[in-house]
């Protein structure tokens, strides 16, 4: 009997959904700008059976403040990319990753007094 749940951990790397390099580039670019602004400090990447997730943290020991999710099964319905807030609310969903990430870029824009 195995301790690992087969539903949680796929049998092989081919069963997992992951972000492609072209998808990670805009995510990590946004991450770098938010780190420079002092808003974010850490991130984590998960590749699961039905989705891939980039979790963003304000502090390392906290829960993620945002999750950027990729669910390929939803690409023909609501859109495969989503930004989910800390409370589980979907902030933006669509098939264009850069358009979905704009909801987080708005947090970079601040008024100057």
pLDDT < 50 stretches: none
How much of the residues is beta strand, in percent?
15-25%
Q: State the helical fraction.
A: 10-25%
Walk across the major sheet and give the strand order.
Answer: 1-2-3-4-5
SSE string:
HEEEEEH
- Based on helices, strands and strand pairing, what is the structural class? alpha+beta
State the end-to-end CA separation.
Answer: 63 Å
Number of domains: 1
Radius of gyration: 15 Å
SS elements, strand count:
5
Number of helices: 2
The overall pLDDT average reads: 81
Sum up the overall morphology in one term: globular
Detailed description of the structure:
The chain has 113 residues and is an alpha+beta fold. The chain has one domain. The chain has two helices and five strands, in the order αβββββα. The chain has helices at 21-36, 97-105; strands at 42-47, 52-57, 66-70, 81-85, 90-94. It has a five-stranded antiparallel sheet. The longest helix is centred in the first third of the chain and has 16 residues, at 21-36.
